[in-house]
Amino acid sequence: DLKYYEPKLAKDGPAMGKSIFAVLYARLGDADNAFKLFKESYVPNQQEPFGALSETGTSNHSYFATGAGGMLQTVLFGFGGLEITEEGIIQKNPILPVQWKSLTIKGVGVDKKIYRMENK
């Protein structure tokens, strides 16, 4: 289904669509496609001078919190493998892009857990 719907995303569309696809690819173990869509979800939408995200790459209206939230979800729930369950927050099958050496997620949940992942 992802391969069917991915081409239907607007090329200059809002940031959050591609970030959700990135989460799904990461959860499927496809770090390459996850990283590609992760970058496409925010790099074209960064606005000068501080890199704040706008809804689209051609928009002059920033800050687009939904796009930034999608980017954060890709890191936490995609690459980081975090999942919210009835028992609390757990980590399942984290996967890092080859371009990253490591990822550390700190202060998770009421017990402030730390999750560390490394590419070998």
Provide a compact summary of the structure.
This protein is 37% helix and 21% strand. The protein is built from 4 helices and 6 strands, in the order αααββαββββ.
Describe the structure.
The structure is a single chain. Helix 2 packs antiparallel against helix 3 and helix 3 runs antiparallel to helix 4. It is built from four helices and six strands, in the order αααββαββββ. A hairpin with a 4-residue loop joins strand 1 and strand 2. The protein has a two-stranded antiparallel sheet. It has a two-stranded antiparallel ribbon with strand order 3-4. Strands 5-6 form a two-stranded antiparallel sheet. It has 120 residues and is an alpha+beta fold. The longest helix is centred in the middle third of the chain and has 15 residues. 37% of the residues lie in helices and 21% in strands. The protein has one domain.
Topology (SSEs and partners):
Blueprint: H1 2-5, H2 15-27, H3 31-42, E1 46-47, E2 52-53, H4 65-79, E3 82-85, E4 88-91, E5 102-108, E6 113-118
Helix pairs in contact: 2-3, 2-4, 3-4
End-to-end CA span: 31 Å
**Count of discrete alpha- or pi-helical segments spanning 4 or more residues:** 4
Helix percentage range: 25-40%
Q: What share of the residues does DSSP label as strand, in percent?
A: 15-25%
Shape: globular
Question: Structural class of the helices, strands and pairings?
Answer: alpha+beta
Q: What is the string of SSEs from the N terminus onward?
A: HHHEEHEEEE
- Low-confidence runs of at least 5 consecutive residues: none
* Total domains: 1
Summarize model confidence as the mean pLDDT: 89
Give the strand order of the largest sheet, numbering strands 1, 2, ... along the chain: 1-2
Number of DSSP E strands = 6
Largest sheet data = 2 strands, antiparallel
Q: What radius of gyration results from the CA coordinates?
A: 15 Å
